[in-house]
Amino acid sequence: MPQRLLESYPVASDRYDEMLAADGRLRPHWRTLIDQLENLSPDMLRRRANEVRDAIASDGVTYNVYADPKGANRPWELDLLPHLVSSEEWDFLERAVGQRARLMNGLLSDIYGPQTLIAEGLLPPALVFGQHGYLMPCHGWQPPGGVHLHAYAIDLARSVDGTWWVVSDRTQGPSGTGYALQNRQIMARAMPEALRDMHVESPHRYFHTLRAMLTRLAPAQGEVPLIVLLTPGPYNETYSEHAFLAHTLGFPLVEGVDLTVRGEQVFLKTLNGLRRVHAILRRMDDDYCDPLELRADSALGVPGLTQAARLGNVLIANSLGSGVLESTALHGFLPAINERLYGEPLLLPSVASWWCGEKPALDYTLAHFDELVIVPAFSSMRMQPVFGHSVTGAARRRLIESLQLQPHAYAAQEWVRLSQAPVMSRSGDYRLMNRTISLRVFAVADGEGGYQVMPGGLTRVAPRQRRDVVSMQQGGTSKDVWVLREEDRLEAHDAPEGHGAENVTLIKGTVDVSSHSGENLFWMGRYSERVKNLARLLRTTLQYTMDGQTESRGMLGSVSWICSQLGVQMPKSDPRPTITGLQQSLQAAVVDPSAPVSVATQLRQLANAAYQVREHLSLDNWHALTKMPAMVQERINTPAAAQHVLGNVIDACSGLAGHALDDMTRDAGWQFLMVGRHIERMANMAALFDNFLRLPPQRQTAALSWLLEAASSIVTYRVRYRRTPEWLPVLHLLVFDVSNPHGMAYQFRMLQQYMSEIAQQLGLLSMTIPTHLSSQLEAMNLSEFAHEHPNVEQANARLTQLMRDAVSGGYMLSDDLSRHYFTPLTAPVSQGV
Question: What pLDDT is stored for residue 41 in this prediction?
C-alpha cells in the first residue's frame, strides 16, 4: 500500500473520490499510476511538473480570462496527474454520450423542421420560441446529410454514489477538443512510461473522423472541398485552441473579414483572389455569424452566410441555431423526447431539473429553495449558477422576486456535490491535494447517422477545495483524461482512406493563403526585421558609451542625434549628452513597453502578427517566437545587462530568419514574409544613412565604425579591406555592393526578385518602385563621392534623395501590396509592369 503520496491526502466523506474507494483503498485502475509516482523522488516529480509548465509556455497554449489582471494570453494550466477512467466505465459513457448526441441532432431536426414535439406537447413552445438561441431564419433548413450537430460536447458530474449526471450540453461550437489533444501531447512528454504501461487509448481518431465527415458532407460538386475554421479572432478566450485545431486539421484559420458571399456562395479572400469555401467549422456563436439576418451589430460575421447555408451551398458545422439546445431548462423534457423519437430510455440522466415557467415547478423551487441551484433557463442570460443555501438577506429576496416576476427565465437544478480528484500541490512540496472536477466528453458525427466519442476528453478542475462551480474563466485548471484499455482492445487510429482521384487532385493542388494571413506574415517579416535593426542600433550605441575612448566620447552627440531622428527617445536639448543620461535613454528603449520605438513595443507587435498566423509556423518556429517577449520583461539596471538582453534578442531574430528559410514552404505567404523583411531592411538602412549624411563631414568620418556596426557590416568590411573605415569603401559596401545582404543594392535586387515572383504567381503588380530605385543607384558613379571630386556635392545630393526615396518607396510599396492583395474582393488584375 503506497504511503508517501497518500498519507496526507484529504478524503471527503460527502463526495465521491475518483482515486480512493469509500474504505480509503486505492481503486484498482489507479494502482499502476500511483506505484510509478511512488518510485519517483520529490525532485523528479517537481521536475516533471515544471516540464508540463514549460511545455505549455513554449507551445503557447493560452486561455484568455476576460479582465484578467495577469493580462491577455493567460497560460493554460494542466495538472501533472491525469483523470483515470476504467475501461468498463468508459464503455458505458461511450454508449450514453453517443446516444445523447443522436438525440440532440434529432431534436434540432424537429425544432427547425416539422416541430412535431411541440405539437404533441412534449416540448413547451416558450422554451423554443422564447429564447434568443432559436433563430427563425433557420427554420426549414435542411443541412447536407441531415446532420445539424456535427460536433457535440457534454459536461458530466459524478454524485456521491458514483453516478454520472449531465450538467450541460454544448451544441454551438463546443470548445475543448484542441485543449484535450494538447494536454495529451504534453503528458506524453512528461509521463511517457505511465501512458505506455497503462495502455491509454489515443484521442486522434476523433480528429480523423471530424475531418473525413466534413469532407464527405461538404457540397463540393466534384471539387476538392475547401474547409475553413471560423474564429472570432485573437481576443476570444480560446483563440489559442482555434489556431491549434486549424494546424492539426489542416484547415485555414479565418475570421469573418476573410470571407465574403457572392452569388449566394461563400468565398475565401486569398492572395490569389476569391476561392469558394465548401464547409465552415465554426467557433463563433450563432447570432454573430451573419449581421444581415441574425445580429445586425455583429462585426465578426459574414453578411449573407445564412442564405448561402439555407440553399445548401455551404456546410456549417454546427448548423446555425444549434445553440437553442444549450438551455438547461430542456433537461427535464429530454427523457420523454428520446422515448418518442427512438423508443428507448436515456442512459445518462440529467441533473434533476425544473423549468420555472411551469407553475408546479416554480412552486417546488420556492418550497425547496435551499436545496437547489438556480440557473438561467437560456444561455444568453450570462448568469452564474446561484446556490440557494448560500444566498441570504436582500440578495435572496431579490432573487425570489425575480423568480416570481419572470419564472420562464429560470430553471432549478438539484445540488450535486461534485466528485473530487487528486492534484499535485503547486507549492512544490511532495503531496497530493483534492479538488472538485467535472468531465467534458466530446462526440463527432460519423456522417452516417451515428456518433463517435473521443476516448478521453477534458477534465476541468476547480481552483479551490470543495467548490461546486468549475469554470476556466474563474481560474480553473485542467487534467488529461486517460481511458484505460486492455492491450488487445486498443484500437488502430489510422486516418481514413480517401478516394484515389480526390487524393491525386489534392496532392497536385496548392493551398491558397488567405489575405488576412498573407498580411500578417508580411508584417511578421517587417516587425522581426524592425526588432533586429533597433536592437543592433541600441547595442552598438551602448558599446560606444562604455569603451571609454576619447574619440568615442566625441561622437556621442552625433549618434545620439541620429538615434533620436530614428524615433528613440533621447535626452532633450543636449547636443553633448552625458554618458549616464545617454545610457539610461538607451536602456529605456530596450524595455519600455509604452515607448513608440522600443524593443519591447516592437516585440509585442511581432507577437501579435505571429499569433494570427500560428497555423503557418512550425513548432520550432513558434517556440522561438513565444520566448522572445520574455527577454525584455526584466528591469535593466546596467548597460552591460542591456547589451546582454539585446544580444539575445538579435540571436532570436536571426533564428527566426533561419526558420523562415528552412522550415516554411515557399508559398505566397512566405514570399510576402520575405518582402516584408526586405522592405523593412531597406527603409531602415535608408533612414540610417540619410541621417548620417546630414552630419558635418568631420563627424561622418568619426562615426564610420559606428555606422558599419549599426548596419551589421563591420566584419565584412574588416575582412575585405583590413583597414580603418574610410568613406568610399564604406559607401560602396553599404550602398553599391549587391553581395552585402545588409546593403541598399541587395535590398533593391531582392525586392525586384520577390515582387516578380509574386506578380507571376498571383497576378501582375507594378514594379515601378524597386525598378526606379535600382535605376537611380545604377546611374551613380562611386568615384564622384570622393571628397576631392568636383561633383561631390551634387553626388551627395543625389544619394540623399535616393535614401529618402527608398524610405517613402518602402511605405508606398507596402500600401500597394495591401491594396492589391490583402483586401481583395476579386482576383488581382494586371497593373502593368
Answer: 84
C-alpha–C-alpha distance, residues 302 and 283, integer Å: 14
The x, y and z cell numbers of residue 133, run together, are 438561441
User: Residue 607 in contact with residue 615, Cβ under 8 Å?
Assistant: no
Whole-number Å distance between alpha carbons of 236 and 284: 9
Give residue 369's pLDDT: 93
202-249 confidence digits (pLDDT tens): 999 999 999 999 999 999 988 999 999 999 998 888 999 999 999 899
CB 313 within 8 A of CB 302: no
Q: Which helix (H) or strand (E) holds 106?
A: helix 87-111
| Cα angle 327, 399, 66; round to 5 | 60
Among residues 94, 442, 104, 384, which one has the least CA distance to residue 241?
442
Tell me 499's DSSP state: -
DSSP state of 381: G
Max Cα-Cα span within the chain: 104
For residues 809 and 801, the answer to whether their CB atoms sit within 8 Å is: no
Determine whether 427 is exposed, middle or buried from the number of CB atoms within 10 Å of its CB (0-12, 13-18, 19+): exposed
Exposed, middle or buried, 698 (CB in 10 Å: 0-12/13-18/19+)?
exposed
Q: Which set of grid coordinates corresponds to residue 550?
A: 576619447
d(Cα 566, Cα 799) in Å, to the nearest integer? Answer: 19
How much is the pTM?
Answer: 0.86
What strands, in cross-sheet order, belong to the sheet with 372-376?
Answer: 353-355, 410-414, 372-376, 386-387
Q: Which residue has the cell 423549468?
A: 355
Backbone angles phi and psi of 257, in degrees to 5: -70, -15
Residue with cell 555592393: 737
pLDDT of residue 501: 39
What is the Cα–Cα distance from 78 to 476, expressed in whole angstroms? Answer: 10
> In this structure, what are the phi and psi dihedrals at residue 63, rounded to the nearest 5 degrees?
-140, 115
Nearest Cα neighbor of 745 from 794, 782, 786, 783 is 782
What is the full DSSP assignment across 264-280?
A: TEEEEEETTEEEE--EE
End-to-end CA gap in the chain = 80
Q: Which residues pair with 451 in a beta bridge?
A: 445
Residues of the chain with pLDDT under 70: 1-3, 66-73, 427-430, 465-469, 472-473, 475, 487-511, 548-554, 572-577, 764-767, 824-833
Three-class SS state of 628: coil
Q: In the chain, what are the domain boundaries?
A: 516-822
> Residue 764: what are its φ and ψ, rounded to 5°?
-70, 140
Count the helices and strands in the chain (H runs, E runs): 28, 19
Q: Give the C-alpha separation, 718 to 725, whole Å.
A: 8
Q: What number of residues does the chain have?
A: 833
What separation in angstroms does the CA of 288 have from each of 256, 321, 494? 10, 11, 36
pLDDT in tens, 1-56: 345 778 878 877 788 999 999 888 899 999 999 999 888 888 888 889 889 998 88
Cβ burial 265-290 (10 Å sphere, 16+ → b, else e): bbbbbbbbbbebbbbbbbbbbbbbbb
β-sheet bridge partners, residue 270: 273, 514
CA-closest candidate to residue 742, choices 568, 537, 554: 537
Residues 6+ apart with CB under 8 A from 167: 155, 156, 157, 351, 416, 438
Q: Give the pLDDT of residue 1.
A: 38
Q: What is the DSSP string of 551-586?
A: HHHHHHHHHHHHHHHTT----TT-SS--HHHHHHHH
In this structure, the number of other CB atoms found within 10 A of the CB of residue 204 comes to 16
| Strand spans (E) along 377-497 | 386-387, 410-414, 420-424, 432-445, 451-453, 458-461, 477-483
Whether residue 823 contacts residue 760, with contact meaning beta carbons closer than 8 Å, is answered with no
Task: Give residue for cell 492491450.
Answer: 487
